[in-house]
Amino acid sequence: MTDVKGFSTRAIHYAYEPMDNEGALTPPLHLTSTFSFETAEAGSEIFAGDRKGHFYSRISNPTLDLLEKRIASLEGAEAGLALASGMSAITSVLWTLLAPNDEIIVDKTLYGCTFSFLQHGLAKFGVKVTYLDLTNPSNLEESIGPQTRVVYFETPANPNMRIVDIEKCAKLAKKYGAKVVVDNTYSTPYLTRPIELGADIVVHSATKYLGGHGDVVAGLAVGEAETMQQIRLYGMKDMTGGVMSPFNAMLVLRGLKTLTLRMDRHCLNAASIARKLEACGGVSKVWYPGLESFEQRPLAEKQMSGFGGMIAFELEGGLESGRRIMNKLKMIRRAVSLGDTETLIQHPASMTHCTYSPEERLSHGISDGLIRISVGLEDQDDIWSDLNQAIND
């Protein structure tokens, strides 16, 4: 059923026909490491790429293949690639696209492990890493040059919700032949489709909203078919070995079936909680794209069909107030990750973004008092009641 147009329908049906699989409504789970060949000649042809087929699950697997086709369809890309984690997706892509003396331009706010890979990984292998405030596209226009191979950013950014104009950055990058790589974990393809706005590659931590249930670690990347094949055979196969297991692919496929419903509820709950936080005494600032006070609200409306489930806020009293309030929570879980059914709260400076030095956090827009909430699927009143008692008790 590959001709269906609706997003939700494709998330459930795309690239799978039950009657081709003995009527099984749920796609089969192929728990095999290797595949046999009909003949020696057939094996040679598959290895050479002259015939379609699977020969080893580190390269491809039917369960992963279905997930790759489905996420590519949802993102509007030619091809997808399933990987072991979000960081495996990021590193496999960048190891493939970059070489010594190349430059990568990145936004100044990134997930902590991404920052660490760039700052302490790629940089020591001769790749120039340039940090810019990409919320102002003129900064990219002034800095990009012939050695720039990649422009990389998250939007919204983890953890402070900054938004980058994908379309404007993509147009500037294309003038210099640089590829634009966007981490779309916060938005998912349901809310933002960077490929349609000019990006070349999209990466995801599928651990988050795509899986949606906090029971899987997985990554995905999508883009043009030839580039994705290069990443499969070099960045993933040879450089990182970050291969997704078939069982994890099955869990992400399950998650995609309810992505639309869950994201609608995440957005609804987060918008309500953000408004209440903004009106709450003791809260000095709230960052959520759906708030009228959010400085980049017009851009959010332009490239997002909804404002997501993530909120950042700062309390009067800074870090100590944040720790005190987090310790008073009863239902909301103190945990990293995001996109789960449960509401999760964490302190980026001491948790997910601790790989930054204090000076780096300050210059990259991550204050010590910033608190991040991944708003879950519980009843709004219960989420707010827990937050409110912790803040005002």
Automatic annotation (TrEMBL):
Lineage at the top is: Bacteria, Pseudomonadati, Pseudomonadota, Alphaproteobacteria, Hyphomonadales
Q: Is Membrane among the key words of this record?
A: no
Pfam family name, one:
Cys_Met_Meta_PP
Origin superkingdom: Bacteria
- List the InterPro entries hit by this protein, alphabetically: Cys/Met-Metab_PyrdxlP-dep_enz (IPR000277), Cys_met_metab_PP (IPR054542), L-Met_gamma_lys (IPR006237), PyrdxlP-dep_Trfase (IPR015424), PyrdxlP-dep_Trfase_major (IPR015421), PyrdxlP-dep_Trfase_small (IPR015422)
Q: Does the keyword Lyase apply?
A: yes
* Database matches in Gene3D superfamilies: Aspartate Aminotransferase, domain 1 (3.90.1150.10), Type I PLP-dependent aspartate aminotransferase-like (Major domain) (3.40.640.10)
Keywords of the record: Lyase, Pyridoxal phosphate
The protein's matches in CDD domains, at most eight in alphabetical order, are given as: CGS_like (cd00614)
Originating species: Hirschia litorea
Broadest EC class?
lyase
> What cofactors does this protein use?
pyridoxal 5'-phosphate
What protein name is recorded for this chain?
L-methionine gamma-lyase
Q: What NCBIfam families does its record include?
A: met_gam_lyase, PRK07503.1
